[in-house]
Amino acid sequence: MAVVFKTALLDEKMDEVFDWSKDSIPVRDALWDHFMEANGHNTDETEASMQKIDAKSDADVKAYVEENLKK
């Protein structure tokens, strides 16, 4: 089984991680909002999606945000 080392990327502010973002909320909150909107505000589905994000590397999370949240 692969070991995933968690880092603080999810707790950093969007505008500090992504030069295209003007949001000062943490990356974690932006992803939560994204998943809530995508699944009709189903908290259980959003929690499951966030657990998958928590298991990803920083590079994977950053790529996901770039692909799905960049406007």
Describe this entry's structure for a reader.
There is one protein chain. By secondary structure, this protein is mainly alpha-helical. It has one domain. The protein has four helices and no strands. The chain has helices at 14-17, 27-38, 43-54, 58-68. It is globular. Pfam families: P8.
Poorly predicted ranges: none
Question: In sequence order, what are the helices and strands, one letter per element?
Answer: HHHH
> Into how many domains do the coordinates divide?
1
Strand content: under 5%
Write down the Rg. 12 Å
Mean pLDDT: 91
Structure classification: mainly alpha
Count the E strands.
0
Shape: globular
Query: Separation of termini?
Result: 36 Å
Biggest beta sheet attributes? none
What is the number of helical segments per DSSP (H or I, 4+ residues)?
4
Helix content: 40-55%
Pfam family, one: P8
Distinctive features:
globular, 4 helices, 71 residues, mainly alpha
Please give the structural blueprint.
Blueprint (H helix, E strand, L loop, with lengths): L13 H4 L9 H12 L4 H12 L3 H11 L3
Q: What does this entry show, briefly?
A:
With 71 residues, the chain is mostly helical.
